[in-house]
Design goal:
single chain; alpha/beta; Rossmann fold; Dimethylsulfoxide Reductase, domain 2; 4 domains; seven-stranded mixed beta sheet; six-stranded mixed barrel; 28 strands; 34% helix; Mopterin_OxRdtase; molybdopterin cofactor binding; oxidoreductase
């Protein structure tokens, strides 16, 4: 493998031709990518009525490997029904995430029953009868309903409505395992749980602080926006325990100048210890304060608790900040100097900030750092959580949370005469724990890979195996279909977004709602998510007061409901006729009037947590995605930008090998309080901060404890304390 020293570039162009051949030819592939549908991958947002490869400010062509990978996967042929007879469950469990993804498209409902050795194909009628029969057999609060962020607003709203009318609030989504801490932290700081900016604000900023993220691999189209910041003279400050190749230098294929010469992205790069972010953020704030750069007028006019916050900043001890962050005082003062000189700053982050037991505190500290200079509530400035799945934000907006917002709850009951449950409902991890205890009997998963996204994968498998039934709606196979099998496991094949027979909508991370036209089905067999949900609902609850389930099989009807009950979504009622995509009102703050009761932002004071794993023989582990991966889906085993060709590895700084008593390129055992992985290749990696380590998600989930942030219930996938020891002789267990 030739070492890569920049992201993007000619390799990305060559890769697009490779995926085009896999999809049946470049013209066919290009037409699919250019269709009027929102991109299927990240929530940065692309496509819709402007056509694919166009972003919210009209820039074309905007395309990345992630969108091509997802599209090519959906353009696979179908899995032959004989496959299920020829391949046992045991053999499928030996397949890697990548091998499962490339088995082909699911085209038949398949079923596993406890004691069988193989899946069997069943008819749609058999599937519906079995699911409805089981739901009638159990009580509603013995079920849980899990939603992926790849589904549409319409499917998400319809399924959560069905679950609640059935009688349970055990309704949750994948954000509890990623950005829930962002939503909670932002709501508690600025009164809205989403980005406070639009895409054009980002591109007009003169300073972007990117904290705990790697968009070069996970949100590549963001790199063109960062390049615009650089070309206009702006600064990009990257804070990450790992020096990521694509954040240092990137070649944007659609930009000839960047492609040929390469583009420097980060102007400044700092490497705290994993878990040192909160101390670092307070340290930057202290340096800003000492440099006289705090906007005291803004704080006094537009922020609550500013006196307490300023006093806490002044009282913070530099020695404690440095020890708990791993960053020197001089470096923090350097960051403060760059920040202090800018006029328009955007703060962006991903799961390096949220995947901690203090994830909400991290987000509150980022908010405070922005507010202390008045960088929220003005154009070109604000807060930007970089969301994962393409519609994960929309799924939350349309009510996929255990407890509905009061305004939505009241509107549903008053406008439609329905009765909704008032129980608290369980978040995602609470549902897993209840399943493990035997309190939940049935799971229903709208996309995603619940098994693969859980911490402590051994526990997750046991919990899901404890269910009497688990139903999963999917386009392709994943590890969640073959591990943690319930007494009765049913996989229902559904259409991809660009195959839907009716228009659907999605919401980007910038609070922008798009309309996807759908398109012709590629294969016989799969059904639309709306069709599946409305059919089950009509058979389970045929006489529901206030709801016509047949009418709810039309996405236009669902949009009428959404527009009536979800604040800011009024325009969605006519979007299929008007084709007018829109910005959701009340979330973007170009004036310092915030979504709190008194219109003021809120500053929070924190105690700094100690760094984990302080001691000989131990490391802090961060679980990460590779460049050839999106969420739990692995499209390529290689990690191009980190120059790795396998996934059964642990990347460790060269200085840590002697203290661990291991040799470079040797096989080791990696252990945590939760689990252990054997036969892992220990590879020297100078780009990670000493004392820390990196392994790939979801394979390394077996090591991740079920420790959660108490405010958001998000598991701490970062900062896992591990020990690394030489591999015992005779042990050749495969990684993961």
């Amino acid at each position: 493998m030739v070492k890569v020293n920049s992201g993007g570039g000619w390799r990305a162009i060559a890769y697009s031709f490779k995926k085009g051949r896999e999809a049946g030819g470049m013209w066919k592939f290009y037409r699919a990518l250019r269709s009027k549908n929102a991109c299927k991958t990240c929530a940065l947002g692309m496509g819709g009525q402007k056509g694919g490869m166009v972003n919210e400010v009209g820039s074309f062509p905007e395309v990345c490997k992630k969108s091509m990978q997802a599209m090519a996967s959906d353009m696979q042929g179908g899995i032959d029904p004989n496959f299920w007879k020829q391949n046992s469950i045991e053999s499928l469990q030996r397949l890697t995430p990548r091998e499962l993804e490339y088995l082909g498209r699911l085209v038949h409902p398949v079923r596993y029953r406890r004691g069988q050795s193989h899946f069997e194909t069943i008819t749609w009628e058999q599937a519906f009868d079995t699911i409805v029969g089981k739901l009638r057999e159990v009580t509603p609060d013995e079920t849980f309903w899990y939603f992926s962020g790849r589904s549409s607003n319409e499917a998400g709203f319809l399924l959560q409505l069905m679950a609640r009318l059935y009688g349970t609030n055990n309704v949750n989504n994948c954000s509890y395992y990623c950005h829930q801490a962002s939503g909670v932290g932002l709501n508690s700081s600025v009164g809205s749980g989403t980005a406070t900016i639009q895409l054009e604000d980002l591109e007009h900023a003169d300073c972007v602080m990117l904290i705990g993220g790697n968009p070069a691999s996970n949100h590549p189209r963001l790199m063109s926006s960062l390049l615009k910041v650089r070309r206009s003279g702006g600064k990009v400050i990257v804070i990450n325990p790992v020096r990521e190749t694509g954040l240092i230098r990137f070649r944007i294929p659609s930009d000839p100048r960047s492609l040929l010469g390469g583009s420097k992205i980060a102007t400044h790069y700092y490497q705290p210890h994993i878990g040192g972010d909160l101390a670092l953020l307070w340290g930057i704030a202290k340096a800003v304060r000492q440099a006289g750069r705090v906007d005291l007028d803004f704080l006094s006019q537009h922020c609550r608790h500013h006196d307490e916050w300023l006093a806490a900043v002044d009282a913070m001890d530099w020695a404690e900040i440095v020890a708990k962050s791993g960053v020197s005082q001089a470096e923090m003062e350097e960051i403060a100097e760059v920040y202090g000189q800018c006029n328009r700053a955007v703060f962006a982050w991903t799961m390096g900030i949220t995947h901690h037991q203090h994830g909400v505190l991290n987000v509150q500290a980022i908010s405070a750092l922005a507010l202390c200079r008045g960088m929220v509530g003005r154009p070109g400035s604000g807060l930007m959580p970089i969301r994962g799945h393409s519609n994960v934000q929309g799924i939350g907006s349309v009510g996929v949370t255990p407890r509905l917002k009061k305004q939505i709850f009241d509107a549903l009951q008053e406008k439609y005469g329905i009765q909704l449950p008032t129980s608290a409902g369980k978040d995602t991890l609470a549902c897993m724990e209840s399943a493990h205890q035997g309190d939940l009997k049935v799971g229903f998963c709208l996309g995603g890979n619940l098994y693969g996204s859980n911490p402590d994968s051994a526990y997750a498998a046991a919990a899901l195996s404890n269910l009497q039934m688990n139903v999963m709606l999917s386009t392709t196979m994943n590890t969640g279909h073959v591990h943690g099998l319930a007494d009765d496991t049913i996989i229902l094949p559904v259409l991809a977004r660009d195959e839907e027979p009716q228009p659907t909508t999605q919401e980007s991370m910038f609070n922008y709602v798009r309309l996807s036209d759908g398109g012709p089905r590629r294969l016989p067999g799969p059904r639309s998510e709306i069709d599946v949900i409305s059919t089950i609902a009509s058979r389970l609850m045929p006489d529901t007061q206030g709801v016509d389930w047949t009418a709810m099989g039309q996405t236009s009807t669902i949009r009428q409901w959404i527009g009536e009950v979800i604040p800011g979504f009024e325009k969605i009622k006519s979007i299929d006729q008007s084709k007018e995509e829109f910005q959701i009102a009340g979330r973007t703050f170009h004036q310092p009037s915030f979504g709190t009761k008194d219109g003021k932002a809120i500053l929070h004071v924190h105690a700094l947590p100690p760094l984990a794993a302080e001691g000989p023989g131990r490391l802090r582990l961060m679980t990460v995605r590779s460049e050839g991966q999106f969420n739990t889906v692995v499209y390529e085993d290689e990690d191009l930008y980190r120059n790795q060709t396998a996934r059964d590895i642990i990347l460790i700084h060269p200085d840590d090998f002697p203290t661990l008593g291991i040799h470079p390129e040797s096989r080791v055992t990696v252990s945590s309080d939760t689990g252990r992985m054997e036969n892992i290749l220990a590879r020297p990696y100078p780009d990670i901060r000493s004392g820390n380590a990196l392994m790939y998600y979801p394979e390394s989930n077996v090591l991740v404890p079920r420790s959660i942030d108490p405010k958001s219930k998000t598991p701490a996938f970062k900062g896992v304390v591990i020990t690394v020891t030489p591999q015992e002789r005779g042990s050749v267990a495969p990684a993961g």
